[in-house]
């Protein structure tokens, strides 16, 4: 069992004044001709998917074995900066950088643009002149036919963009800085985003996360700049790599119906019932379950982990009845019932309304896979990506 790599809890400076001064000076640039490669996993929620949209609420998430990969090489001044992705079309798209203004004239490029913009702003705050680059982003999160599995592609895209561009600019970023930079970019576009996918794509493995006050983080950047946003406290933030348990195996089933997390979370925020005692009870119960799950993972207590999944499923069902959001579809109900029929607890994962469900079992369970297939559920060949698989490296 691997121990947690690090833990960050609302600390104003993660490595002391000396570490902060070192980061201000940047780091060496990659070798000439080298290709920077950054990888980040997709994510699945184990618990806390709806609670974590509230600042300070907790979740457990896992990084899974479908990756986003960014490859970046230095470009000449004549070439200028470009970004490539199948989402942007067949040809590289120019990236215009004018002061702190970044422009990418392509549909769907808003998040990549904001990630580059936050790094350009940080570079200029540190006296670093951003150099041209060619960035290419590839995704394994969808299959070859374009089917979307709800694995959090936006968070992984933000993380690999931040890692690759920061490395190219010569800016040192630890995991906490990667999370913060990618989150700052995301909340410029979606202030209600929990940024849990970013936390998971940053760390990989099993992750214990509590969301900060994202509006306060956005205001901190606007008021004091990006550098201050990396150093000052983000109240409520917990970013913790958990040990990878050997006592339980994650099973993932897909309903063949993609869901829109943004739409479902928007419905959540629009509800008057968020001021009710029942919603407060849901949040309290969700945090209790997350704490129990974290303790079970650390102690390798499979029975406690399975009990937490049962409790989490019941708590989400209560939220669905209270809110009418539509978390549990007919297909997801079939997924949960099929798992129960073979004695395995299962639940929706993420926003619900389609996409995936998960189950935890003491070992790989072929009986569960067969029950899911009989219920029309596609069994996804996914496993938890170890912490060591994430990060950035150079080729060439």
Find the count of extended strands (DSSP E, 2+ residues).
14
Helix content: 25-40%
CATH hierarchy, class of the largest domain: Alpha Beta
Percent range for β-strand residues = 15-25%
Compute the gyration radius: what is it?
Answer: 21 Å
Count of alpha/pi helices: 12
H and E order: EHEEEEEHEHHHEHHEEHHHHEEHEE
Give start-end ranges of low-pLDDT stretches.
Answer: 1-6, 11-26
Described by strand count, sense and barrel closure, the largest sheet is: 10 strands, mixed
CATH topology annotation of the largest domain: Ribosomal Protein S5, domain 2
From the spread of the alpha carbons, the general shape counts as globular
User: Span between N and C termini?
Assistant: 34 Å
Structural class: alpha+beta
CATH architecture of the largest domain: 2-Layer Sandwich
Domain count: the total is 2
Give the mean pLDDT: 87
């Amino acid at each position: 069992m691997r121990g947690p790599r690090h833990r960050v809890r609302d600390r104003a400076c993660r490595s002391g004044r000396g570490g902060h001064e070192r980061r201000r000076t940047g780091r060496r640039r990659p070798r000439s001709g080298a290709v920077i490669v950054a990888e980040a996993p997709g994510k699945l929620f184990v618990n806390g998917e709806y609670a974590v949209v509230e600042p300070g609420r907790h979740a457990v998430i896992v990084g899974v074995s479908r990756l986003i990969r960014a490859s970046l090489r230095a470009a000449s001044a004549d070439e200028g900066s470009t970004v490539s992705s199948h989402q942007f079309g067949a040809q590289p798209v120019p990236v215009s950088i004018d002061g702190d203004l970044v422009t990418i004239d392509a549909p769907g490029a808003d998040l990549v643009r904001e990630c580059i913009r936050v790094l350009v702003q940080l570079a200029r705050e540190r006296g670093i002149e951003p150099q041209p680059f060619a960035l290419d982003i590839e995704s394994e999160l969808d299959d070859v036919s374009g089917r979307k599995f709800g694995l959090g592609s936006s968070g992984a895209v933000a993380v690999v963009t931040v890692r690759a561009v920061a490395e190219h600019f010569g800016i040192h970023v630890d995991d906490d800085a990667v999370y913060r930079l990618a989150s700052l970019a995301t909340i410029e576009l979606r202030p209600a985003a929990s940024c849990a996918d970013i936390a998971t794509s940053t760390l990989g493995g099993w992750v214990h996360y509590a969301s900060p006050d994202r509006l306060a983080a956005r205001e901190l950047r606007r008021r004091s700049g990006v550098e201050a946003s990396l150093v000052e406290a983000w109240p409520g933030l917990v970013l913790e790599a958990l040990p990878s348990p050997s006592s339980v195996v994650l099973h993932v089933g897909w309903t063949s119906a993609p869901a829109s997390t943004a739409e479902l979370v928007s419905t959540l925020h629009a509800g008057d019932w968020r001021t009710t005692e029942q919603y407060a009870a849901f949040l309290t119960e969700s945090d209790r379950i997350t704490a129990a799950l974290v303790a079970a993972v650390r102690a390798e207590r499979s029975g406690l982990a399975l009990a937490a999944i049962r409790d989490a499923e019941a708590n989400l069902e209560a939220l669905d009845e209270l809110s009418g959001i539509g978390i549990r579809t007919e297909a997801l109900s079939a997924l949960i019932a099929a798992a129960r029929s073979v004695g395995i607890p299962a639940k929706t994962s993420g926003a619900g309304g389609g996409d995936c469900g998960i189950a935890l079992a003491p070992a790989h369970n072929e009986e569960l896979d067969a029950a899911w297939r009989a219920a029309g559920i596609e069994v996804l060949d996914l496993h938890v990506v170890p912490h060591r698989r994430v990060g950035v490296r150079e080729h060439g």
